[in-house]
Design goal:
The protein is of the alpha/beta class and 283 residues long. The relative contact order is 0.14. Helix 3 packs parallel to helix 5, helix 4 crosses helix 5 and helix 8 crosses helix 9. The strands form 4 sheets. A 4-stranded parallel sheet has the order 9-10-8-11, with helices on one face. It has a 3-stranded parallel sheet with strand order 1-4-7, sandwiched between helices. The protein has a two-stranded parallel sheet with strand order 2-3. The protein is globular, with a radius of gyration of 21 Å. Helix 2 links the parallel strand 2 and strand 3. About 2% of the residues have low confidence. The chain has 2 domains: 155 residues, P-loop containing nucleotide triphosphate hydrolases (Rossmann fold, 3-Layer(aba) Sandwich); 115 residues, no CATH class. It is built from 9 helices and 11 strands.
Length: 283
Amino acid sequence: MVTGLSGSGKSSALNMLEDLGFYCIDNLPVSLLGTTLKLLSEKDYRKIAISVDARDKESSERLSPALEKLKNEYNINGIFLTASELILQRRYSETRRRHPFSFQENFSNHEQKSLTVGECIVREKFLLASLQGKFLTLDTSQLNPNDLKKLVFELVGGEKSRDSLVVVQSFSYRNGIPIDSDMVFDSRCLPNPFYQKDLRLLSGKDDEVISYLSSNKVVQDFLGDLYKFLDVWISAYLNKERSYITISIGCTGGRHRSVYCCEQVSKNLKKTWRVLTRHRRLG
């Protein structure tokens, strides 16, 4: 299932799933979900990707119960795409497309009320709020279509796509905490390689920065405490209601300390979990 806010990249995600061999259906009405899955499974389709959204209040209210019912018959996983309101408004301004909520019918007099893009986004976020927690949330605010396709490929293209997934990502506090975070850790208390002239232009993936940080006791104590915490609590998050968790580690610029810690945490977690590593500030 692919769902989320209009303009967040559902079509791009669906295109990548089609490239991965999924039979894809875009904007399927909620009322047809059960019938469609039944017909496709009878024809021996095993990889199906369906995009659904909240075109109105009724469909958004019916979507969550419909999915819960279908989970008893099918192995259903999903991606919920989102983005900041500013980014979504910018995308609609650039494409000049009309938001699906632009015209809402007033049922008392059957007249249509025109809404601004901002009002549409707020209304859609409200209607989909209860659904977001059921799926893996991807914030596409800083992703172009190619970046999103690459991420979808990494998420579902591997052999272990049905296993629990731990996403570990680095970020810059200057750009704000990623809204898809489940756990957030602040590495700004650690020594900053930025103030070392020969390290400033490097990143936490370069050997020189790795050597600088790995030789510091404070950094290793920080990571040791982080390993212990995650060993205990990741399992609590990855219960039967969800199959993923997103761990975000930030520093001021998102290039040195957070990237190094992100890489080390990912390496440690890969002993137990399927891990996807992302760096928001590195190209």
